[in-house]
Amino acid sequence: MVEAINNDYEHSSGPVMTIAVPYARLTDATPTESNPCEITSLLPGTQLCGTIMTIDASDSIAIVNVAPGFIGNFEVRNVLTYNPGVAELTWGAINVGDPVYYDHSASMPAGVYLSTSPIGTDTVVNTLFGYIACKTSEAAALYPLGGVTASTQDCQVQQRGAGA
Questions:
Q1: Is the pLDDT of residue 9 over 50?
Q2: What is the pLDDT of residues 110-148, one digit of tens each?
Q3: Which residue spans within the chain are E strands per DSSP?
Q4: Which of 52, 66, 113, 147 shows the smallest number of beta carbons within 10 Å?
């Protein structure tokens, strides 16, 4: 599956605080504009997350918005728990205010980086990316999304960002 590049109108005009990050410091070393990302660190669960604004392929640099409060549209997997080392085990409906994690589990669908599971298939803590949010009352009326079977939902997520 080819990773989707979301249009500018699918992201908020909220706060912007960008940093340049070498591809080698990203969990996904082949970044795509408008996708969520995780910047690697020494301790699991402490990584800084943000949204890729642009990429400079010639220098292997991603410009990442790490501003707290930025709201973007992202695909979110409704997995809650994993059978360690195997696959998804339980799922639940996604609702406004639910925490969303950057999930690098091998069982995640291609091009999907966020889930509602705090722990991945490798039993390592997933990094808190942000929370399910709504920019409009029309969007709020659509929740909860998904259910108790596996699904991937298009959600508005308010990123935690830097300094949170």
A1: no
A2: 999 999 999 999 898 999 999 999 888 898 999 999 999
A3: 18-22, 36-39, 48-56, 61-65, 71-77, 79-83, 87-91, 99-102, 114-115, 127-132, 152-159
A4: 147
Q: Report the relative pairing of strands 48-56 and 36-39 from DSSP bridges.
A: antiparallel
The token pair at 37 is 């990302």
Rounded to a whole number of angstroms, the distance between the first and last alpha carbons of the chain is 33
Is residue 8's pLDDT more than 50?
no
CA pair distance 162, 87, nearest whole angstrom:
31
Contact yes or no for 36/10 (Cβ under 8 A): no
Other Cβ atoms closer than 10 A to 145: 18
Q: In terms of DSSP bridges, do strands 48-56 and 61-65 run parallel, antiparallel, or are they unpaired?
A: antiparallel
Give 66-107 pLDDT, tens digit per residue. Answer: 999 999 999 999 999 999 888 999 999 999 999 999 998 988
Cα separation, 124 vs 122, whole angstroms: 5
Pairing of strands 71-77, 114-115: parallel
Strands (E), 70-164: 71-77, 79-83, 87-91, 99-102, 114-115, 127-132, 152-159
